[in-house]
Please model this.
Amino acid sequence: MYKVRKRIGSVISVILKLIVSFIFIFPFLWMLSVSLQSDAETQSMSLTLIPKTPQFQNYVNAWNSAPFPLYIRNSLLVIAGIVILQMLIMVPAAYAFAKMEFKGKNILFGIILIAFMMPIQIRFIPIYFMMSDWNLMDTLWPQILPHMTDAFGIFLLRQYFMQVPDELIEAAKLDKSTDLQIMWKIMLPMSRPGVASVILLSFVGHWNDYFWPLVMTNSDSVRPITIGVASLKATEGSLFWNTIMAGNMFLVIPVLIIYFLMARNIIKSFTYTGIK
Amino acid sequence: MKKKTTNTQESEKKYKANWKEKIKPYLYIAPAFVGIGLFTIYPVIKVLIWSFQKVNQLDTSKTKWVGMKNYSYLISNSAFQKTLLNTLIYTGGTLAIIMTCALILAFWLNKSQGHLTIFTQGAAFMPHVISSVSIALVFSMMMNPSFGLFNKVLTAIGLPASPWLTSSSTAMPSVVGVASWKAIGYYCLIIIGALQSISASIYEAASLDKAGVGVTLRKITIPMISPQLFFVIITMTIGSFKVFDTVRLLTDGGPNNATSVLVYYIYKQVFWESNIGRACAAGIVLLILVGILTIIYFKLLSKRVHYQ
Amino acid sequence: MGEIVLKNVTKKFGNNTVIQNLNLTIKDGSFTVLVGPSGCGKTTLLRMIAGIGPQTSGTVSIDGRDISEVAPGDRGVAMVFQNYAIYPTMSVYENIEFGLKNNHIPKDQRKKLVDDACEKVGLQELKDRQPNALSGGQRQRVALARAIVKQPSVFLMDEPLSNLDAKLRVQMRVELIELHHKLKTTFVYVTHDQIEAMSMADTIVLMNDGKIMQMDSPRKLYRDPDNLFAARFIGSPAMNIRKFGKEEYILGFRPEKGIISTQEPQGCYRTSGTVVAKEDLGSEIHYSVRDMYDDVSVIRSEEDDITVGEKVWIGAKPENIYLFGNDQLRIREDDPRYPDLCRQVLALQ
Model:
């Protein structure tokens, strides 16, 4: 009797889990479905779950409706710029906070944490004018420079760096290594999960970024893919959801691929709260 | 005579070497602080200053100080009041829905193992990594009153169709719904992480202490995950005050300012009304709200000491 | 009051059988130690008695009452965990009181019981402290008090001393033995440390690979091992062994009963070799000698004049030699093979 109850319980559990998973996945499935629907199917009131003939043409239309190659290039360049700039700035800073002793260390770190809490939703106003005054509005720099100090990244890297045994560094110093060599050859390799986390978070975060590029770009030449896809709604109008969804897929697919490949890592990186 | 010189030379060398060593850490953190100075400290100060001014972008010499005028405008302005109210409704709504769902989901998924459980966790988390743009577009489409999936399904099963984002009465609930859907997985997984940090032997000791399910939950589990719960609540609340993307992309603040929130207000003031002073005043309001919440968080955190 | 009987218990984790058809009776009021290497099943067995890791099949009874399907909280057992498992968000007092509260014991009775338990373990001053403000030793006392206050028929302990520093460990060992004398309840104690087992137990259950290798008093286990495993597990340094004969018999002798000399000893098993190490421990000296078969034996001696590198004779008197078959079982004097094997041993080089 107990075994029967257990069996029923586990069946219900399986069904519930599938329902919950479905709730979180179906918009993407629907997005895929619509992206392959014909105009007639999209604009009718009938439920077409699987389009009769997949209209890959929608993707071509979407691709051509806006300068997507340019948008994607911009997104990638911005991300690359941000990641490189951040690594150059964060690694020495994290190293100093993790492994060096100096006056005012705690206060300075505290300043970083406080700065972290200043919302970009107000900082953008002066920064916008700053970029304008420096004549950078037609470049990608307004999307890159303001992110140069990522407090969370410094915090995360510092945590990982602190766990590298001091003896390794002392041994390297006895071997007359420069600080640069120590950072490059010891700290980074030993903190690979931390570095990977930071880069992953940066990549996904900036690929998906909408507010900042919206505020910091005035022309298509520097717009990233998020802005491009968002504007599809305006250009295509609400009759051509199939084309819009096809365009939407350009934005979603890269992240989905990364997510499928590295789900566990991504979840670990994203849910790091610093609380042990 | 010679000895003295050598000693001085040596100590000078040491002093120089020491000086170099002492400067190093500051050099390493300097670039980071340049960034903070330029893009955090300077902007925040500027926003504060501008909030007390009437700013003329074209001719900065015409910018003048107006004291509290921007603030008094905001306080008495009904549109801004609506904005604040909307922001509070949005925050409250998402907080309630996300906390309830995330907690229930976390406790349930934490109990079992196996591939399906992990799959479900992964599925729930997925909306968090996808851009708000994509999600807003899909939901805009699904919530389209004429061709959207939601109304298609509702009418198919005999229920009335809803105006979703197009009516001022249903717009905010719709936005809250979408935002909650996007965030539940993220917070759920944080809570699961917290639950898994509780050693199994605690529960075993509790069972030997004849603690029932309710008692275990109240006296052991919840207190032990309370740091993470505080974190979740505060992060969620602060994040909700700063919401922009979802609102802009789903409803553009409408219909009729039904979903106009604080950051959206600031954005419009800067780019549509060109009223920088007012925008900055609203920004300072946001900053104060976020600041209060942060202080509350740290106060609560220091009370609840770290036990593990 | 607290006799424990495990009958034909089996424990499977998925497809992995860890314990198969094990039978064990633990005497009421004894201090029984389950000892063995990692993974031998001792903790699994303990958890079966507690009910937190129930058996896959078989029965567990305490005092004649079958508790195989009874919830842990209703078995009348108390357990001290290796990591203490005290509730981090409750004070010491609340930790100890928790079980009593759940059993609906009235408040004043609770207070008396908790105060009593605190006194027994010396926690009177710390009742209002939070666990994160306690040292390891103090936390352990809280775990103990929490167990004592339940007034159980059986105390279960899972390596409770392994997280303490050496000095504290020795002190707590004595205190636990005293506690056992005072309470006269059955203690079942798990450890991997054979010294701890030997010093605390009145009965040792030696386990390996899910099976009981021998169950005896410490003295008997030391003097009269049933098999090679028992002979080598108990005693430090371990018994010296050597294979001999075509059928691969094994002889063994303990370092403390070994002979080391520059002269060839007569009338006993002996072999020659070179001293490869000499450890002076103050009260005695440990010589490691490598013989011509490349086996290293350790001899404990009070003689100091032998040096490293010196060629020596080592051996043992016949009454100190243990014999084992190639099935690893002990061959005792009443075994028919015994006299012949003795002759072989004495004739060995």
